[in-house]
Amino acid sequence: MLKGHQTWEFDRKPVILATGTVGGPFEANGELAEDFDLLHEDLWIGQESYEKAHRLLFEEACQKAMEKGGLRKEQVQFILGGDLINQITPTSLACRTLGAPYIGLFGACSTSMEGLALGAMIMNGRGADYLLTGASSHNAAVEKQFRYPTEYGGQKPPTSQWTVTGAGAALLAGEGDGPRVTSATIGRVIDMGLSDPFNMGGAMAPAAVETIESHLRDRGIDASYYDLIVTGDLGEIGHTVSLRLFEKHGTPIQENQYKDCGMMIYRKGQPVFSGASGPGCSAVVVYGHLLNRMKRGELKRLLVVATGALLSPLTYQQGESIPCIAHAVSIEMVKERGS
Amino acid sequence: MLKGHQTWEFDRKPVILATGTVGGPFEANGELAEDFDLLHEDLWIGQESYEKAHRLLFEEACQKAMEKGGLRKEQVQFILGGDLINQITPTSLACRTLGAPYIGLFGACSTSMEGLALGAMIMNGRGADYLLTGASSHNAAVEKQFRYPTEYGGQKPPTSQWTVTGAGAALLAGEGDGPRVTSATIGRVIDMGLSDPFNMGGAMAPAAVETIESHLRDRGIDASYYDLIVTGDLGEIGHTVSLRLFEKHGTPIQENQYKDCGMMIYRKGQPVFSGASGPGCSAVVVYGHLLNRMKRGELKRLLVVATGALLSPLTYQQGESIPCIAHAVSIEMVKERGS
């Protein structure tokens, strides 16, 4: 099962039976609006705080996944998830409603693939019949906590990114039709000494490159194995930095097979600076748009590399640079189960 | 592997090859001082902030476990861990130093057993040769974040608990001598509507009871199977509440085989109110004192039920009650490996 240093190859290849994706008003005006199961017209979603709206996003994504998978909530044995809010309370409170045994994760914007990797590990080990895993973020709740309340109208530099309001969840099963999780690479904490919290993409790029290169080495393949390698939320700046690093290391990767979720979700003209970010970003783009493309036969082999900046306002204030991480999960259209 | 609804039975029974436990000055004066590998004389541990001292606790616990297990850090494939600080930055920054691929967890004070359950799942699925899992807390860092800086000298009610300054880590291996992880039960989020953040034990007791009863039902055993069932940090009040719940449910459990880590770590006379708490509490008591008792042959079958209160200062301010959780892991002295 362990392959190389830090990669798991899943013999049983768990199936992503169904997914649920929920977005906010900014996402409804975005490039991928048609790939969402549910889009909300305003950021409050009828709740009395942004954090409670955040909780609801995750609840709804899980409910949509169960509904589309034809499962009642009693049939889901575990939920793995997390978010960026202090003590991941939106996810925990959503799981209070959802009722299944709950495994709380923190990987910042890498949470989507941290959860999918661990979820696939549990499925592979026959630790569940069905489980849900997902991640979410809410623009106004995250901005308030990490920077300033959006009501202040604070200015941002062009290196900054726009936190996605959205949640994506995947329902994993041992059997069934759908894309399968074939392997996962857990990333190391990489910190190149950057400390500007308005340039997360630049800080996270080396972590993405390290995880992709480790993944290819561990599996004994090159980048051309995949139809698409997609990073979580490097944004335009981080994406460019990562391409330069691949070039510097002599790792062949084609620009047309290497994309970033943070550059895909919004339309040109939406004021998102360097691109999108937030745990919800890769979760909604992968569990919505990209899996739809796989189901249409446009992609057969996908590597998702969710990137996370593991800082807090406090570590920044205490002069720490930004520790970053990236976890990679391969999702493939394969007919046959392995062993 | 899945047994019943929410329990994993580990066929390969991963071994706890070695552990590392580190404590602060209050723990050095406590009941279990002799069971620590390392005790610090002051809360700063030579660092310029309590959060940086907190990070160091976790680093040292992992280093001690590797040293005692005779492993170099390159041999450890994964680290699973978490803490209570916003965005679990002490654990993430420790993993920057330690260097192994890192899986960040958030389960509040249940993190120790969340990590041991997932770590054992990974070992059981042959996903690693060696991995580290642990949890930590720092009294002054946690008090500052959740309540008031300790320098304010704020008063506390007798229902409150004292956050442990300490870290405990376990080194898991597929082969070797030592206590073995035989099963794990993942808990649900339980919220009985209590909202007093100075009475966590009372809030967490129903979660502990739910997980213990689920564990016994899933494994088809009764409480007498274990020499000791130990909760994480219910404290005196939560412990009493949980005993009443067992009685009410008709679940037979003997008082002399049912203890709480939060009532074991300090001496009578230390001003800890209802007892100890914090992710470090169950981590140091189990990975220090209780495993030492197992190695001396005093205990053969141990069930650890780490309890967590998944609130934040913000959820409290927004009028939410306290969502709680408990994860249970059984550790047994068994000679033979299963299948």
Automatic annotation (TrEMBL), chains A, B:
GO terms for molecular function: acyltransferase activity. This is Stage V sporulation protein AD. It comes from Domibacillus enclensis.
